[in-house]
Design brief:
The complex is a heterotrimer of chains A (291), B (464) and C (135).
Chain A (H helix, E strand, L loop, with lengths): L1 E5 L2 H5 L2 H13 L3 E4 L21 H12 L4 E4 L2 H16 L1 H10 L11 E4 H9 L1 H7 L8 E4 L21 H8 L3 E2 L18 H17 L4 E4 L2 H17 L8 E3 H8 L17 H6 L4
Helix pairs in contact in A: 2-11, 3-4, 4-5, 6-7, 7-8, 9-10
Chain B lengths: L16 E5 L3 H12 L3 E6 L13 E2 L4 E2 H14 L3 E5 L1 E9 L2 E8 L14 H5 L3 E3 L8 E3 L1 E2 L11 E2 L5 H5 L4 H5 L12 E7 L1 E4 L3 E3 L16 E3 H7 L21 E8 L15 H15 L4 E6 L9 H10 L4 E4 L4 E5 L2 E8 L4 E7 L1 E6 L1 E3 L3 H8 L11 E3 L3 E5 L4 E3 L9 H23 L8 H11 L1
Parallel strand pairs in B: 1-2, 1-13, 2-5, 13-26, 15-22, 16-17, 16-22, 17-18
Antiparallel strand pairs in B: 3-4, 6-7, 7-12, 8-9, 10-11, 14-23, 19-20, 20-21, 24-25
Chain C lengths: L6 H4 L2 H10 L11 H5 L10 H9 L3 H5 L3 H4 L5 H5 L6 H13 L13 H6 L2 H11 L2
Classes of the chains: A alpha/beta (291), B alpha/beta (464), C mainly alpha (135).
Bound molecules: flavin-adenine dinucleotide and iron/sulfur cluster (SF4) (2 copies).
Chain lengths: 291, 464, 135
């Protein structure tokens, strides 16, 4: 299958390894991700103020781009982009009046009908490819890898746009199992990492990171698996900050789920950009014989 | 005014027998009151024994008297009353007719035991090799596949749980049949239908607790040491799986820190039910107190939103728990509960202090919402009476006719109508019984008491 | 530690503005505190998120707008997903921030952030932070 792909800014800057491993893995599973020819920043955070329609223009404009390329659906990797695009879609569909105002405002654009479906790559893997199919394509089972999934907030909340049950998600676990890795359940898997507070309140984020990582370490996880570039940054970078403050803290590598998927599908480390990680995951991977 | 029943039958033809559906405290009380007044009662209970939820309770607020001590003699009285025909393991399928003459079809479920022949010796139960989780002990304990749900069951005669029976599923075993001296075990038994004509019906089908799966943020159903209030009652019962010692399910340890959470599912219009379940404040207070009596060096915490202690002696009871037993009340709702090592971490809040609270507990007890018994809507349909959006039976008028359903001759009692405690349940059951006996005696004097146009109009407007 | 209450304070323009911007019915909140019990930032806060909401219910404009809590909020929607009354507190937090920011009072001074740190940060972190904390 083919599907339009909205990358968002971060995938082109700090999370290129997420993108390269995702595109390659999807390809190997028969999903062609077609990057939109034109796209703009989605705004990163969905505006929660009722009168702030101007901030809905960015996500809506991207959805119009999908329509311009005759698309009905678009996939994205970043949780924040997913949230923003999906929320804007929902707003438009639930408020015909706001839809009219936004369309009228963007008179240079074609009117947006609200009909583009926004799906996360994880949903494609679960609902369209199927985890059984993934299992069948695995050439390098990740046996013996104890990985603790971390969902964060925006993949799951608000519930009307989340991709799995908000309180007890399993989509990452199910994917890990299809690659023969061992998921380590964590009570922190859907607790917030502190998000954008990382910019001016790093201490707060370090505390959140401590909860998430130390739980995983205590439960003998060898790594953490995420799907959001901001969660990734917080758990990777802020974990190093934590370790600098407190010697003796175990350092757990953080992976995008697509990196593990690429390895499992036998696509090699080249598409995974492991050199970009603050906490180098390669010693772990080579000790397991995965690279 | 003259009575005009739906079927235009004359008022004289009132069958002076009552049907009571549900054998909890409400149905038992109503049956006894009607029977004592000299009328026949058919009491239909779907479980193998009468007793309902009250027989599962350990001690009852606000007096802390033992539930089984009240229930056991009453259950025996019901079974021995010359005017009561007890039909356990039966369900009402279908009802036709109107006040005075209801024709009721009752399904007698296959018990695979001829319960007339059975002497209740219990040999079959002893010899049955298969154990499954006990419903009565809410899976905290086990029972055999041929079983009497609990020792004081009335009648004390077993039934076979066909789903788990080796003989019925694979043709092997049959030990119970071999050992039964009176040849009561009958694997060929099938459901049978019985027809009864009655003049009035009391619906007393009681309640269930809110489904476990719905409180995912509290990990109910996932962590063994997160239990419901009813499970706590079983842990605290001398007849229960721990013979009354407070030991947590996971490892049998005596919990030192126990958190009780009120309003789980109740007063939650988003995920649960919007109404107040009315009994949880009181039983949480009771649980904290009973826990402390058994574990004097333990600490009980209760998360609450409001304490609704409006019955006789209730407020005093709650305060006693605080002052004498040291129950710590925390005002706020809990957001999350999760397992951390061998502790159950509770993230709550004390809005009075303005602090988020974290407690590393050993056990958590959830006061889950009271919801109508499964099957209430289906039964309402068969009876042609109305339920509200949650499935509670609707009364003809909340104030003036609070025990009458919309349909003349069908009365309501107990938690099937709305959540309530035992005193209120017993009072309502007595009231329903008195309406039935009034109806029966009124027919002898021409049925003037039936002349309540209100009931007719109410039922009509409710049904539209 | 005193709140002067009157019909005028509890129906003030400030209260209406918060309702308008957030689209929330403030009185739907019955102050159970479940939002605060699960909020990831309360460790750092001086008053609970539910108390911020309470202050708005009481029309206590200055106290609400001066609370650190509104700037600590990470828009994580934990409160929203568990509120038994369907209150979207994250929108109320946003409304309060907006009331301050629209007076050109930036909460984060971009010029004070270190270049080195900024270079490492993912764009989503920076942009969302500025969106939330600058006018
Ligand atoms: C944890 C807990 C502790 C409590 N502690 C106290 C206390 O200390 N003091 C107090 O006053 N109250 C207490 N209560 C409340 C008490 O349990 C109820 O008030 C009482 O049991 C209500 O009785 P009932 O007969 O209406 O319902 P139930 O006890 O539910 O009985 C209903 C009966 O009807 C049967 N039935 C259901 N549907 C059908 C059908 N379709 N056909 C035939 N039969 C059917 C059921 O099998 C059951 O036997 C407590 C409740 C709980 C959950
Ligand atoms: S959870 Fe909802 S009802 Fe409870 S205090 Fe918070 S906003 Fe109010
Ligand atoms: S959205 Fe804000 S107030 Fe709500 S839980 Fe998250 S950080 Fe707390």
């Amino acid at each position: 299958m083919k599907i339009h792909y909205y990358p968002g800014c971060t995938l082109k800057v700090t999370a290129t390894q997420f993108e390269s491993s995702a595109i390659a893995s999807a390809q190997a599973l028969g999903v062609e991700m077609l990057e939109l020819q034109r796209w703009n920043c989605c705004g990163t955070v969905y505006s929660l103020a009722n009168d702030d329609l101007i901030r809905q223009l960015a996500p809506i404009r991207n959805l119009i781009r999908v329509r311009n390329e005759n698309g009905n659906a678009v996939t994205t990797l970043c949780s924040m982009c997913l949230n923003t695009l999906k929320s804007a879609n929902l707003l438009i569909n639930e408020n015909p009046e706001k839809k009219r105002t936004i369309n009228a405002f963007m008179d240079e654009e074609e009117d947006y009908d609200g009909g583009v479906e926004v799906v996360h790559l994880l949903e494609i893997l679960r609902d369209r490819v199927g985890f059984e199919e993934v299992r069948g394509k695995v050439t390098q089972p990740l046996s013996g890898l104890r990985a603790s999934p971390y969902y964060g907030c925006l993949l799951l909340r608000p519930e009307e746009i989340g991709i799995d049950r908000a309180e007890s998600p399993t989509i990452l676990e199910d994917l890990l199992k299809s690659m023969s890795a061992e998921p380590i359940d964590s009570p922190y898997k859907a607790e917030c990492c502190g998000s954008y507070q990382t910019v001016d309140k790093a201490d707060l984020v370090i505390e959140k990171t401590r909860d998430i990582v130390s739980w995983a370490a205590r439960n003998k996880a060898q790594c953490i698996v995420v799907s959001c570039p901001l969660c990734f940054f917080n758990l990777d970078e802020r974990q190093k900050d934590l370790a600098e403050r407190e010697s003796g803290t175990a350092l757990l590598p953080v992976f995008y789920f697509t990196q593990l998927l690429a390895l499992a599908l036998g696509l090699g480390a080249e598409v995974c950009g492991f050199q970009k990680h603050v906490i180098d995951p390669r010693p772990l991977l080579s000790s397991k014989g995965f690279i | 005014m003259k009575l005009t029943p739906y079927n235009n039958a004359s008022t004289a033809a009132i069958t002076k027998r009552a049907l009571v559906i549900g054998g909890g405290i409400a149905g038992m009380q109503a049956s006894l009151d009607i029977a004592d007044a000299g009328y026949e009662v058919v009491l239909v209970e779907r479980e193998p024994s009468i007793g309902g939820h009250m027989i599962q309770l350990s001690e009852t607020f606000p007096t802390l008297d033992c539930s089984q001590c009240i229930m056991t003699p009453k259950m025996v009285e019901v079974s021995q009353h010359p005017n009561i025909r007890l039909m356990t393991y039966c369900e009402v399928e279908d009802v036709t007719g109107d006040v005075g003459q209801f024709d009721v079809r009752i399904r007698k479920k296959a018990a695979y035991v001829d319960r007339e022949k059975c002497t209740g010796c219990g040999l079959c139960v002893e010899k049955c090799p298969t154990k499954v989780p006990s419903e009565f002990d809410l899976s905290l304990g086990k029972r055999k596949v041929i079983y009497v749900p609990f020792p004081q069951a009335v009648p004390p005669k077993p039934v076979i749980d066909a789903e788990n029976c080796r003989f019925l599923t694979s043709g092997k075993c049959g030990v119970c049949k071999k050992v039964c001296e009176v040849e009561a075990v009958d694997f060929e038994q099938t459901d049978t239908m019985i027809e009864e004509r009655v003049g009035a019906i009391v619906v007393a089908t009681g309640y269930d607790l809110y489904a476990k799966e719905k409180v995912a943020e509290y990990g109910y159903g996932r962590y063994p040491d997160v239990i419901s209030g009813l499970e706590f009652e079983r842990l605290n019962s001398a007849s229960g799986p721990t013979t009354g010692e407070i030991r947590r399910p996971s490892d049998g340890k005596v919990p030192r820190e126990v958190v009780f959470i009120q309003c789980v599912g109740s007063r939650d219009r988003e995920k649960g039910v919007p109404y107040c379940s009315r009994i949880c404040c009181m039983y949480a207070a009771k649980h904290a107190m009973l826990y402390k009596h058994k574990v004097p060096d333990g600490q009980a915490y209760v998360f609450y939103m409001d304490i609704r202690a409006d019955g006789k002696g209730y407020e005093e009871f709650v305060q006693r728990g605080v002052e004498e037993d040291g129950t710590l009340y925390l005002r706020g709702r809990v957001s999350r509960v999760f397992q951390h090592g061998d502790k159950i971490v509770v993230w709550g809040v004390d809005t009075l202090a303005g602090k988020k609270t974290e407690i590393a507990a050993d056990m958590v007890v959830l006061a889950t919402a009271v919801v109508p018994a499964a099957g209430s809507r289906k039964l309402a349909k068969a009876l042609d009476i109305v339920t509200d959006e949650y499935g509670f039976y609707t009364e003809a008028h909340l104030k003036a006719h609070s025990v009458e359903s919309g349909k003349p001759g069908i009365l309501l009692a107990g938690c099937g109508q709305s959540p309530k405690d035992i005193p209120d349940t017993v009072a309502q059951a007595g009231c329903a019984a008195s309406k039935v006996t009034a109806l029966f005696s009124a027919s002898e004097v021409g049925g003037s008491l039936l002349d309540l146009p209100m009931r007719f109009t109410a039922s009509k407007s409710l049904r539209e | 530690m005193e709140a002067r209450l009157s019909h005028a304070t509890i129906h003030s323009d400030f209260v209406k503005k918060v309702e308008e911007l957030s689209g929330q019915d403030l009185l739907a909140c019955y102050q159970c505190g479940k939002c605060s019990a699960g909020c990831p930032i309360v460790e750092e806060a001086e008053i609970l998120p539910s108390q911020v909401l309470r202050l708005v219910q009481l029309g206590q404009r200055d106290d609400a707008l001066h609370s650190k809590t509104i700037w600590l909020c990470a828009s994580c929607y934990t409160c929203v997903s568990r509120c038994p009354r369907g209150v979207d507190l994250s929108k109320i937090m946003e409304a309060l921030r907006q009331i301050v920011l629209r007076k050109n009072l930036d909460h984060v001074k971009v010029s004070e952030l270190s270049r080195k740190e900024m270079a490492k940060l993912p764009p989503i972190a920076l942009i969302s932070n500025f969106r939330k904390f600058t006018g």
